[in-house]
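hey can u check if this looks right to u? its 185 residues, i copy pasted from the old doc so theres a chance i mangled smth
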Amino acid sequence: MELTDKMQAFVMHCGEMGSRWGFNRTIGQMYALLLISEEPLSANELSQTLHISRGNVSMGIKELNSWQLIATRHKPGDRKEYYQPAGSIWQMANRVFEQRRKREIDPTLSLLRDNFLDEPRDQQERYAQQRLLEIHDLLEMITEWASELQRLSPEKLSTLMKLGAGVSKILDFRDKLSSKERGES
């Protein structure tokens, strides 16, 4: 597969972003290439296009499979496996979030919950435990909110996102009305 300059720039950028998404540069590049490829690609095509070893491609495929981001396809009369993104961009975003939640947020919540099993020994531990409880509650709220968002259809989620600034203005207006009702200026 021959990449244009713009396609190459996108693939390289996704490689750099990969570490921020939770996987390495090569896997980010592989996924980006699969995203912009009209046809499914074989491991050989991934290797040749990205100039990476077949071993790296094999490890990347395993990782992308573990994240449930790619689907394997077969072509009639061809023994090779071909790979393509599994689902829509919205589904990809949900899978990435879900995997990151499992790998990052859930262990943190578990550690925080374990911390609350013991009574604090002194004022310093009481203070620390209170701060940890605030972190726990915030992570729980974010997790619940994100789970609700994941249940929405892409159309409803898109509409909600477009309402974002408007909702903020409504809440600000509500706060101003509440302040006036309480006699605050």
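The two ends are 65 Å apart (CA to CA).
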